[in-house]
Amino acid sequence: MKKPAKGIIIAMAIICLAGGAYWFYHGGRARKAKQGVPSGKESAPVAVVEAEPIRQADIAEHTTVYGDVVPAPGAIQVVSVPYESMINRIMVSERQKVSRGDPLLELKPSPSTRLELEQARNANGTAIQQLAKVKELFALKLATNSQMLNAQEAARQASARLESFKKRGVDGKRIISSNATGLINKVSVQEGAIVPAGNPLIEIIAQNRLEVRLGVEPDVINRLVPGQAVKLGYVNVSGAGEITGKIRKISRAVNPKTRLVDVFVTLPRSAEYMLGEYIIGRMRTASSAGFVVPRSAVLPENGKHVLFTVKDGRAVRHVVKVIVENDRDVQVSGPGLKAGEQAVVVGDYELKDGMAVNTSGGR
User: Average model confidence (pLDDT) for the chain?
Assistant: First the structure.
């Protein structure tokens, strides 16, 4: 090939290469400009988030506690008899439910009581005979007024003592019945036992005299007051409705078994809880007004709490203080917060201060 022709080919190749480079560079810039990407730079990441406005509202904090059903003051009724007796038959057992009028046990006078009854009968008969004699002598003017009065008083006392035995049922077998609807808490005797007068035989807990004992952390009790409402429900029973009780008493000592403070809650008459049942309670322990956001908007970070808002398409980081919280919302305070600003509730874990965000998929 001749040298002039070779030079022409080389020159044309150089021109083609230069034209391709120019088109690649300027055409790429035009495409980036058309897509809104600054020339000479890569596109910055954009986070897709959801946000809700910061609200100015009241928020209540509730504490969940647990406890059990216990007898209320005065709920335990003791069954006893006022004379020494022998237990003939026991008709109930502990934890058994009884109604008013149900038989509890059968008893009879002990040998000592029967002896006293016989002595009372003899004394009454003797007093009656003595009074009759004194009356005859008095009619014959052979007895004084004092003797007549003494004989009448002795007869009266003997009759009263015998009548007392009869009223107490000492003169035979006796069935002791329940005088209330409730639960047998304790049977203190056995068949064949001789029981002194006044000793407890059976304890009954009245059904309408139960209450709930809840265990509360010591640092919470100063935020509770007697008469405060408490929502009560069964533990681990799905579908069971709640009832509302009221705080009757707040103990001022720590229970050595639970290391918690006992709070006693009265039950409404409609309650059908059973003695010893486990109960869950919810009570208000704090209330405040301020900036309120959903719980998901507040993130823990190195012992602090952080919240992101959206301004001009950018994430703004705020270090906030949690004031009050419940299962759904949190009341926060911090510099730069304003009611109505959009707080990020979804996607905030990946955010950094000043990062571009897109809330088009938000609420």
Answer: 85
Pairing status of strand 261-266 against strand 304-311 = unpaired
Does pLDDT of 338 surpass 70? yes
On the question of pLDDT at 34 being above 50, the answer is: no
Task: Quote the CA–CA distance of 58 and 60 in Å, as a whole number.
Answer: 7
- Phi, psi values for residue 338, rounded to 5°: -140, 145
Q: What is the pLDDT of residues 94-139, one digit of tens each?
A: 989 899 999 999 999 998 888 888 898 999 999 999 999 999 988 8
Write out pLDDT tens, residues 316-328.
Answer: 999 999 988 887 8
pLDDT value of residue 238: 66
C-alpha distances (whole Å) from 344 to each of 102, 238, 322, 326 are: 66, 34, 16, 19
pTM higher than the cut 0.70: no
Answer whether 213's CB lies under 8 Å from 65's CB.
no
**How many Cβ atoms from other residues are within 10 Å of residue 162's Cβ?**
21
**Max alpha carbon distance in the chain (Å)?**
189
User: Average pLDDT in the 42-70 region?
Assistant: 86
Q: Are strands 304-311 and 342-346 parallel, antiparallel or unpaired?
A: antiparallel
Strands 103-109 and 202-206, sheet pairing: unpaired
